[in-house]
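If you are new to this repository, start here. Below is one unmodified record pulled from the training split, so you can see the exact layout before writing a loader.
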Amino acid sequence: MLGTPNAARNHAERSERPAPPTATDRQGRRREETRREILAAAWAMAGEHGLGGISLRELGARVGMKAQSLYSYFPSKQAILDAMFAQGAAEFYAATTAPTVAGPDDPRARCKEQARRMFGFSAESTPRYQLLFQRPIPGFEPSPEAFGPAVAAYESMREQMGAIGVESQQAIDLWTALLDGLTDQQVTNDPGGERWAGLVDHAVDMWFDYVTKTASAP
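And here is the target side for that same chain:
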């Protein structure tokens, strides 16, 4: 009977169960899975031929559809690049905003840890680095939505710098220039190697000493 404790409990448990997925839900999941498959294939092509070598015909063939069918998932090649940028920017944000192991009493070590993360992420994938931090595709600009995680990552970096007493825009610009320069050398001249990776800590030491000296100057 519904009025008994057990019946009432069973009724409540049934009421709390999530509704079974509808045909629309399943269709939406399949569509999202296909979009992810297309993006994975686009990244693979970019790794083989460069970002400028992404061909819609070949991309469609890689995911088992005609080039025209891609437009059901992305309205243009620019939209594919925009989705790739959004994905890469979100990954960059996640990689650079995780808590550091070094504590607040060791700002130099915290800076080195963060620099290694930024360098490691950027050097891991040349096409992703180029898409996020350079301008390899003439006329391509990420949408505000795609660019959002990149802005959030930069603001997080500024907050981390502020936490160790670095608030000068000049010091922050020097920080990004140093890391970008090391990364560019690595992906251009020794992709997959360690030649410039081994200089990250030394670059941070130089930057930290400069910032400390500047801050203490009269």
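Two things worth knowing about this chain: The chain has nine helices and no strands. Residues 23-49 form the longest helix (27 residues).
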